[in-house]
Design brief:
alpha+beta; GMP Synthetase, Chain A, domain 3; about 25% helix; about 20% strand; extended
Length: about 150
């Protein structure tokens, strides 16, 4: 019997995840060989973008709903572009109108575009330590029991 682990996603969330995955597959399987997959200067600029991100990370994490900050590629209408960006991960994307002025993220930091991506709430996975017989049998191979 197979069990499904993880959160119970709605049909809309599953469909959005499939569209997002398909967009990335299309991005990396482009047949246009004249255009490089990695834009010129992208790799050379990684260190400076990482430094800029680190300098501003604490401030970005202080905004409401922000759960993470990383380097990445800007997404446009659910598809990746060739434009490098600092990606700000939020638990829930809100319409600009419903945010207070102090809660609106900047569009650029030191000339690098900010891209906001909704990822939902992030939780650490719990670690359950085995105890008793389960702890003693942890490394032993399992044998099938014969039914008589």
């Amino acid at each position: 019997m197979k069990r499904t682990l993880g959160p119970n996603w709605t049909a809309d969330e599953v469909a959005a995840g499939k569209r997002f995955g398909q967009a990335w597959l299309e991005f990396f399987s482009r047949e246009d060989t004249s255009a490089p997959v990695v834009p010129p200067g992208f790799e050379a600029d990684i260190a400076s973008r990482a430094t800029i991100r680190q300098e501003h990370e604490a401030r970005l994490l202080s905004y409401p709903n922000v759960v993470g900050v990383t380097d990445g590629v800007r997404m446009r209408r659910g598809k990746p572009t060739d434009e490098p960006a600092i990606v700000v991960l939020v638990s829930r994307k809100m319409p600009r109108k419903s945010l207070e002025e102090s809660a609106i993220l900047p569009a650029h930091i030191d000339g690098i575009r900010i891209d906001v991506v909704e990822v939902g709430p992030i939780e650490a996975l719990g670690s359950v330590e085995p105890t008793g017989a389960a702890a003693r049998d942890a490394g032993r191979p399992r044998r099938k029991r014969r039914r008589v």
